[in-house]
Design brief:
The chain has about 90 residues and is mostly helical. The radius of gyration is 20 Å and the shape is elongated. The protein starts with 12 loop residues before the first helix and ends in a 9-residue tail after the last helix. The longest helix is centred in the first third of the chain and has 31 residues. It contains two helices and no strands.
Length: about 90
């Protein structure tokens, strides 16, 4: 018979707030990536819009570089907090 155990994790208010902001930025970035690729794909169906579609793919691809940059910025921001003990 297994017992259920409660796990308590204590995070500072500042850590939670900072993580929330970066999470929101990451979600927004992912949404925009999907939007650029979707619109770019539709543009490729019309010969007169193919160049614009290609540029949307370039923008979306650039935003794939932004994704790990957001994660790295979050990590560095949290490490700068005094005695945060936050590792993720």
């Amino acid at each position: 018979m297994s017992k259920d155990r409660d796990v308590t994790i204590t995070l500072g208010h500042e850590q939670v707030r900072i993580s929330g902001r970066y999470e929101t930025a990451s979600i927004l970035n992912d949404f925009l990536i999907a939007l650029w690729f979707l619109v770019g794909s539709v543009f490729f169906l019309y010969p007169e819009l193919k160049e614009a579609g290609a540029w949307l793919f370039v923008v979306g691809s650039f935003q794939f570089l932004v994704r790990p940059s957001i994660r790295l910025a979050r990590r560095l921001h949290l490490r700068r907090l005094p005695e945060s003990g936050w590792e993720s």
